[in-house]
Design brief:
The complex is a heterotrimer. By secondary structure, chain A is mainly alpha-helical. Chain A has 12 helices and no strands. Chain B contains 16 helices and 11 strands. Chain B is globular. In chain B, strands 1, 2, 3, 4, 5, 6, 7, 8, 9, 10 and 11 form an 11-stranded mixed beta sheet that branches. Chain B folds into 2 domains: 157 residues, 3-Layer(aba) Sandwich (D-Maltodextrin-Binding Protein, domain 2); 123 residues, 3-Layer(aba) Sandwich (D-Maltodextrin-Binding Protein, domain 2). Chain B is of the alpha/beta class. Helices cover 45% and strands 19% of the residues of chain B. Chain C is mainly alpha-helical. Chain C has 2 domains: 43 residues, no CATH class; 204 residues, MetI-like (MetI-like fold, Orthogonal Bundle). Classes of the chains: A mainly alpha, B alpha/beta, C mainly alpha. Chains in contact: A-B, A-C, B-C. Chains A and B meet through helix 3 of A and helix 3, strand 8 and helix 16 of B.
Chain lengths: 276, 346, 260
């Protein structure tokens, strides 16, 4: 019986294990191998990582950009999640649906909408000019500003959702109790609600940070050539300079950064499972 | 539109595409890589479609031209292209690495109609073109547009955002010309001086374009008021009445080739297609729309003087341009590209 | 008072998230060569262009084909694995679960590079089946997450009751558990399908000459910007919103029926 059961289990797991093993783990191993062999064993590509000014700049910028976006998502998204969590349930479902809507539309399309809106002769410039705020077109497309703006818009639903999930679990009676004991609304929020929601909020910000590190489409389309991120540099090394070994080293850097942040995520929210 | 008719349109389109796909399987399709954009549509109409009607060989056009992609294909053995467009320094580098196969000239041009300059052992000159300065005529007083690279650098007299190609090739020359170097004294390039000059224009360049269709779009959308362009992209826009113009002053006269990658699946069919470029009647038709003349003998004589005036090979225009040196670039492209990228990010 | 200010901020925030998408649809209805808002004259010109242009239609068909294939692979492999992980007890099941979900959080450029190197060696570039399996990797996390969450909230006493009443384990599973899972499986396949349908980066690396719809849009965006892209984007937005609303409807219905 138990043997039959374990054979059955193995059969059930086989397709998924084959898929993930062959087309996910094995390629990761291939990247590791390529970074060290070109074709004989060499540390040349790792040396290049230290000596190449382009790689250093791009890594630094990618990290800073993803961090800024994560912080912005946190600061801007937290009040939205709070309002949502303290709203009447009937409205809540509707707004939750609305906020999650963009989440199911591809990043490519969502980035494209910003290309349309931010052009020199686009809608935003037209509105600014029409309202008399600016006299001439402002350069927005192909700037770092455009990349920040679009990334915040693309990642914020994830922040709001994670934050919201943590907030609805807070017992409203606790805040009420603090109020009864004489705390002002602000004080009750700051001493009771905020600390209890911080774990979820931090978890959301870290997820935004991780996803932000790997952005490719948005910086490529909105940033001009001057605001490329690590993923774009990897693409450039693969398709333009054809230095696949160096591309692998850069991919390993990105992988390592992601894993470190995932570790941090576990630390902040040990009980929370990703997307669980 | 009602949902029913939307559904009808969708299903009709799908059925049609499925039928086309089924028909395509029965015949040979060659993949010809070029630089895309509006030019590709002209090529389809003048060369590809009549060719398919005459021979039954279908032509699939891909873009853009990329030497590293060629390398990847040849070295991995997965050669997608049967023929590809190549720039001057591309041909030199591809030949050095052995990525191209020889052209059978006894088949392509048995009567020796092409001049020697157009017949390389492994490539054929299909076009001449020039990278020149283009600008929006409506953004400057009439007749007062930028006329040289010195004007391009002069942001006081000619204000507005600019675009340049995201590549050191060409831009180093333009910077030196803007800095007062004589066109015939350009090579070997003074790289340090060129980058110093480029530092001055960098804050005013809002976009660094990467493909030939992008720069035109930037100009039309008003994202920039001037940019470097490939001369042929502007002619159709002028014909449509768009407010754009070019200046040949300081343009880079270059040759463009067709080569067949080593390991291509249909070299014979590709060479058959190559032969269509020897037809002066088609050449005339092509050049009247896109001013990228090849070396077809007798072509210029066939042309209307107004069309000939627009060509980079017209004597007046030749006098204003410098002669691009692919040999100098072939050896230095990789390190200068690395330096260019670093410079761009700083 | 604070609440009112917060409400205003909330409205602005939601508009910031949703409005850009809503604006593309009217922009796509322009008659002009260029994108304008508001459009001068309404026209379906660019929608017609989409369906007349062979390359757009071919790309759409390929995306549908790959999407359906990847969904089938991910659904079968993911559901079986989720059942085994939730119901079975074996060492490393948490690790396996984490691995199956990992493609969701890992930057796709890493997977893209790894698969690119692998496919070049295996000569799998330019192959539709290879693309289907590559997309299934990105789609399987959705199936595993949704199905295992649904299984965890399932009351196994129902299944045990069926066993007591004489049903074999397989029959009990098929007759009791599968109907319960039905809506989740449907939602999982929708999400898996969209994961594949929208996939760009892996496809750019491994597809060779094959053009899926996102790759077609991508080449247009990097080569030129004409309103056909706006038409394509509008249709994708409408399809995605409809798909998600259907998935949400089934999820809600399941919640009502089973009270979770």
């Amino acid at each position: 019986m138990t043997r039959r059961r374990s054979v059955q289990l193995a059969l059930m797991l086989a397709p998924a294990v084959a898929l993930i093993g062959l087309l996910f783990l094995y390629p990761l191993f291939g990247i590791l191998k390529l970074s060290l062999f070109n074709p004989a064993f060499t540390l040349e590509s790792f040396d290049k990582l230290r000596s190449s000014p382009v790689a250093a700049l791009v890594m630094q910028r990618t990290f800073l950009l993803a961090l800024t976006v994560a912080v912005l998502c946190f600061v801007l998204g937290y009040p939205i999640a709070y309002f949502l969590a303290t709203m009447r349930p009937r409205w809540r479902a509707f707004f939750l649906y609305l906020i999650l809507l963009p989440f199911w539309i591809s990043v490519l399309i969502r980035t494209y909408t910003w290309m349309v809106l931010l052009g020199r002769e686009g809608l935003v410039n037209g509105a600014l000019h029409g309202l008399g705020i600016t006299d001439g077109p402002v350069q927005m497309l192909f700037t770092g500003f455009a990349v920040h703006l679009a990334m915040v818009q693309i990642l914020m639903p994830i922040m709001i959702l994670t934050c919201f999930a943590a907030m609805v679990e807070i017992d409203p009676q606790l805040v009420k109790a603090a109020r009864t004991l004489g705390a002002s609304p602000w004080k009750a929020f700051a001493t009771v609600f905020f600390p209890m929601s911080l774990g979820g909020a931090a978890a959301g910000a870290i997820i935004c940070f991780i996803l932000g590190l790997g952005f490719y489409v948005t910086p490529a389309l909105l940033g001009g050539r001057r605001n490329i991120m690590l993923a774009n540099l990897i693409d450039f090394e693969v398709h333009q300079t054809l230095n696949w070994s160096f591309a692998s080293v850069l991919a390993l850097v990105l992988l390592a950064a992601t894993l470190v942040l995932l570790g941090l995520f576990r630390l902040v929210a040990p009980e929370r499972r990703l997307h669980g | 539109m009602t949902s029913l008719s939307v559904r009808a349109v969708v299903s009709a389109a799908f059925v049609g595409a499925a039928a086309m796909a089924a028909a395509a399987q029965a015949q040979v399709t060659i993949t010809v890589n070029g630089s895309g954009g509006g030019l590709a549509q002209t090529i389809t109409r003048i060369y590809e479609e009549p060719f398919t009607r005459a021979t039954g060989i279908k032509v699939r056009a891909t873009a853009p031209v990329s030497l590293p992609k060629l390398k990847a294909m040849v070295e991995s053995g997965n050669v997608e292209w049967d023929m590809t467009e190549l720039g001057g320094s591309d041909v030199i580098e591809a030949t050095r690495h052995g990525w191209l196969q020889p052209v059978d000239w006894s088949f392509v041009d048995p009567d020796g109609k092409l001049p020697a300059i157009a017949r390389l052992p492994n490539a054929m000159v299909t076009a001449t073109f020039s990278t020149v300065l283009a600008y929006r005529t409506d953004k400057f007083p009439a007749g007062k547009g930028p006329a040289s690279w010195a004007d391009f650098w002069n942001v006081q007299a000619f204000p507005g955002p600019r675009a340049l190609q995201s590549s050191p090739v060409g831009n180093l020359e333009f910077a030196l010309l803007a800095d007062g170097v004589a066109p015939d004294k350009l090579y070997p390039l003074d790289v340090e001086r060129a980058f110093r000059k480029l530092d001055q224009i960098k804050p005013h360049v809002t976009v660094w374009w990467t493909t030939g269709a992008q720069h035109v779009q930037l100009l039309i959308d008003g994202e920039v008021v001037m940019t470097s362009v490939w001369n042929g992209r502007i002619t159709p826009l002028r014909r449509e009445g768009k407010p754009v113009a070019i200046s040949y002053q300081g343009g880079a006269l270059q040759l463009s080739y067709w080569g067949i990658p080593k390991g291509a699946k249909h070299p014979k069919e590709a060479m058959t297609y190559m032969r269509t470029r020897l037809d002066p009647e088609k050449g005339k038709q092509f050049v009247s729309e896109v001013p990228y003349p090849g070396f077809i003998p007798g072509l210029i004589e066939l042309l209307d003087p107004a069309v000939a005036r627009d060509l980079p090979t017209h004597p007046d225009n030749v006098a204003m341009q410098y002669r691009f040196d692919p040999q100098w670039w072939a050896e230095r492209r990789a390190p200068l590209t690395e330096r260019w990228n670093a410079w761009l990010l700083q | 008072m604070t609440r009112v200010l917060l409400g205003i901020y909330f409205a602005i925030g939601v508009a910031f998230l949703v409005l850009p998408l809503a604006l593309v649809v009217p922009i796509s209805l322009t008659d002009s060569q260029f994108l304008q808002f508001p459009p001068q004259r309404l026209s379906l010109r660019w929608y017609r262009e989409f369906f007349v242009d062979e390359s757009w239609v071919r790309a759409t068909l390929l995306s549908l084909q790959v999407g359906l294939g990847a969904t089938a692979v991910a659904l079968v492999a993911g559901t079986l694995a989720a059942v085994a992980i939730v119901r079975g007890s074996f060492p490393g099941r948490r690790l396996l679960h984490a691995l199956l979900v990992a493609p969701l959080i890992l930057p796709s450029v890493i997977v893209a590079l790894g698969l690119f190197i692998l496919f070049l060696r295996w000569k799998w570039v330019d192959s539709v089946p290879a693309l289907i399996f590559a997309h299934a990797v990105g789609a399987i996390p959705y199936v595993v997450l949704i199905v295992s969450a649904s299984l965890r909230s399932f009351d196994t006493t129902l299944e045990r009751a069926a066993r007591v009443l004489g049903a074999g384990p397989l029959r009990a599973f098929l007759n009791v558990t599968v109907p319960y899972l039905g809506p989740s499986l449907f939602a999982a396949s929708l999400l898996a399908f969209f994961a594949s349908f929208d996939e760009l980066i892996v496809t750019l690396f491994v597809s060779g000459g094959l053009q899926t719809l996102p790759v077609r849009i991508w080449t247009d965006l990097t080569l030129r910007l004409d309103p056909t892209v706006a038409a394509a984007a509008s249709m994708l937005i409408v399809v995605s919103v409809a798909g998600m609303s259907i998935a949400e409807y089934f999820r809600q219905r399941n919640v009502r029926r089973y009270g979770h």
